[in-house]
Amino acid sequence: MRLFDDPLAPNCRRVRIFLAEKGVDIPRETVEIAKKQHKTEEYRQINPLALVPALELDDGRRLCESVAICRYVEEALQPEPNLFGAEPFERAKIEQWQRHMEFEILLLNAQVFRNTHPFWQGRIPQAPDYGEMCRKASAKRYEWLNNELANREYIAGDRFSIADITALVGIDFGRISNIRIQPEQTHLQRWYDAVSSRPSAKA
Ligand SMILES: N[C@@H](CCC(=O)N[C@@H](CS)C(=O)NCC(=O)O)C(=O)O
């Protein structure tokens, strides 16, 4: 089995944190976006979309989506600690929040990064106005999330889950574009301090 991973890419970090929580080690092959290693013909054989991460099983089957990789790890390799939910309602709730965190935090912050950051200048077409629009939307989402966290410890309930991993990665990713938790967002900050002090956050 091998995991195609860029140490700087947020979606790869989601998988690395997940593996660290599970105590599962999968051999990694580094594919550096900054060096355009994801665009080579060789890597396109692994993932035709030229995106990381990707997981290749020993029999050659592949998964090319971070949450799908995490789900496979939970169901096929290491069920504990459970991070996707233990019964139908909890599974659905965690899926809801995982998707909220993906669309409302991680993807918004990714759009700010892609459309405003010098890293992408000359690499992709940028729309700075759209990036700034996403920055404003992201600030509102942080307010929303802060209010949500007034009433519970973790993103999807009273225990750590895949939704916390996506949220942590999304918020850390926002820092590159100077998107930050505001001083008055004390519930969000309390949650952030707790999840980022877990050993897995270093992954
Ligand atoms: N939904 C996919 C997104 C994968 C993705 O966008 N990966 C980024 C790195 S975080 C990438 O490969 N970017 C390269 C590019 O846009 O050229 C997942 O979660 O795996």
Notes on the structure:
The chain is mainly alpha-helical and 203 residues long. It has two domains: 2-77, Glutaredoxin (3-Layer(aba) Sandwich), CATH 3.40.30.10; 88-202, Glutathione S-transferase Yfyf (Class Pi), Chain A, domain 2 (Up-down Bundle), CATH 1.20.1050.10. Helices cover 52% and strands 6% of the residues. It is built from seven helices and four strands; from the N terminus they run E-H-E-H-E-E-H-H-H-H-H. It has a four-stranded mixed β-sheet with strand order 2-1-3-4. Helix 1 (10-22) links the parallel strand 1 and strand 2. Helix 1 packs parallel to helix 3 (66-77). The longest helix is centred in the middle third of the chain and has 29 residues, at 88-116. The two termini are 19 Å apart. The model has no long low-confidence stretch (mean pLDDT 97). The structure holds glutathione (GSH). Glutathione (GSH) binds at residues 9-11, 33, 38, 51-53, 65-66. Residues 9-11, 33, 38, 51-53, 65-66 line the site of glutathione (GSH).
